[in-house]
Amino acid sequence: MTRRAAIILAAGQGTRMKSGLPKVLHPVGGRAMLDHAIDAAEGLGCERVIVVVGDHSPEVRAHVERRLGTASVAVQDPPLGTGHAVLAARELMADFDGQVVVTYGDVPLLKASDIEPVFGDALTVVGFEARDATGYGRLLIDADGGLEAIVEHKEASPDQLKVTACNSGVMAAPSRLLFELLAEVRNDNARGEYYLTDVVALARERGEPTRAVFAPEDAVMGVNAQGELARAEALFQKVRRDDLLASGVRMPAPDTVFVSWDTSVEPGAVIEPYVVFGPGAVVRAGAKIRAFSHVEGAEVGPGAEAGPYARLRPGAKLGEKAKVGNFVEVKNVTMGAGAKANHLSYLGDGAVGAGANIGAGTIFCNYDGFFKYRTEVGQGAFVGSNTSLVAPVVIGAGAMVGSGSVVTADVAPGDLVLARAPQTAKPGWAARFMETMRAKKAAKG
Ligand code: UD1
Ligand code: CA
Asked: In the chain, which end has fewer C-beta atoms inside a 10 angstrom radius, N or C?
């Protein structure tokens, strides 16, 4: 295979998002749009991925440096058009000989498989048939199917405006050819910009082959405003839910379930209505996530059950057939096989042994305002309702904690601990009290 590299354009201002967050860092499926673009480039086997960033967004630059390293950042300052943006990567590509594909950082749904046909001998553009072509560059295709030129909307003649074949923005060409052509691009057009799209006509003039391949319109959709971001999210969700259903996941109300880019649900699991998955969720076969639960960075083991109204936060790990019920929050806690916390609890930082039972209203008091500490509940232990386990603390295997206890010291295996005020009874006191008070009230009228 010829060597491949990608240049991802992300130097636009994104002002129409009206957001403090740079446009390409807005998430789709819980992952920054720019990361989706980088995933696609990597999925195509690009050995080098360069992101062109603007001087105005240090966050984007830092994001790229974290993921790809400093050698992957090209700065375009000021932004003078898409052709000018690609030229910003010229230095970083000087020693590269192979195919270069140009994509955008704000086209989150485009997958490697949609782009793959762009590679070949000719300078090739990924086009799409637009339902509404307004604003897009039009593809002028000759009688032999060759691509003659791309005319931008602003420069198009009335006849050219009728063309519905549009430029997605994705283009591939041999790197040397691309940079040679870009050096010839001028900015004498309606927007005073250096258009990447002008390289098509320039290649033609030189007798270089040029062509267009087509992708579905939904796959190439670009995000410019919040409404489009929401639409991209909806399309993303639809695709992912359909994939899960096709793989054998049971989801009676798929439209109410929200997944993240990396949500993994094994066949045979059940996801009830109104479940939201943040990034990093894994649900094993036979597990059930009941309605209105939120699962993020957590693993639900085979046959385990969470919800309704459970919240599993990062580091929650439910073992086989473990159970977490309504209004239970679990964070950074491993629950062994068959362990249960059925009602109204906070389990944070620790471990619950296999078969242990955590009573309603149990709290792992894991934080003193400065540091976090662990709570360990041994195998088969029984923690009575409304108990506070003040970490660091260990409840031994098979131990029992009396309801309402505030446990501040370790409990040995097999012991019963009662850490609450002892019960006292005053015989007949209530009856006498009520009689006195009733009499007082009656006297007042
Ligand atoms: C561009 C194409 C058009 C195509 C459309 C598809 C050109 C001249 N036009 O138009 O044919 O139909 O995309 O959506 O290429 N960018 C930079 N630096 C710049 C300018 C843009 O990095 O100086 C980036 C933007 O961040 C964005 C992408 O390039 O990700 C596209 O730029 P934009 O100005 O939106 O191009 P369009 O006018 O939409
Ligand atoms: Ca655009």
From this structure: C
Question: 206-229 burial by CB neighbour count: b if 16+ within 10 A, else e?
Answer: eebebbbbbbeeebbbbbbeeeeb
Question: Would you list the domain boundaries of the chain?
Answer: 4-130+165-207+214-220, 226-417
Residues 335 and 348: beta-carbon distance below 8 Å: no
Q: With cut-offs at 50, 70 and 90, classify the pLDDT of residue 12.
A: confident
pLDDT of 90-113, one tens digit each?
Answer: 999 999 999 999 999 999 999 999
Extended beta strands in 297-337, E state: 299-300, 305-306, 310-312, 317-318, 323-335
Atom of ligand 1 nearest to the CA of 136: 12
- What CA–CA distances, in Å, run from 397 to 265, 324, 386? 32, 20, 20
Could you tell which of 50, 82, 189 is best to mutate to test the pocket of ligand 1, judged by most ligand atoms within 8 Å of the CB? 82
Q: Which CATH architecture has domain 226-417?
A: 3 Solenoid (2.160)
Looking at the CA of residue 83, tell me the nearest atom of ligand 1.
15
Assigned CATH for 4-130+165-207+214-220: 3.90.550.10
Average pLDDT over residues 411-428: 97
The mean pLDDT value for 219-248 works out to 97
Kindly state if the Cβ of 80 falls inside 6 Å of ligand 1: yes
364 in contact with ligand 1, CB cutoff 6 A? no
Rounded to the nearest whole angstrom, what is the distance from the C-alpha of residue 169 to the centroid of ligand 1? 7
Among 36, 153, 294, 343, the active-site one is 343
Cβ(80)–Cβ(188) below 8 Å: no
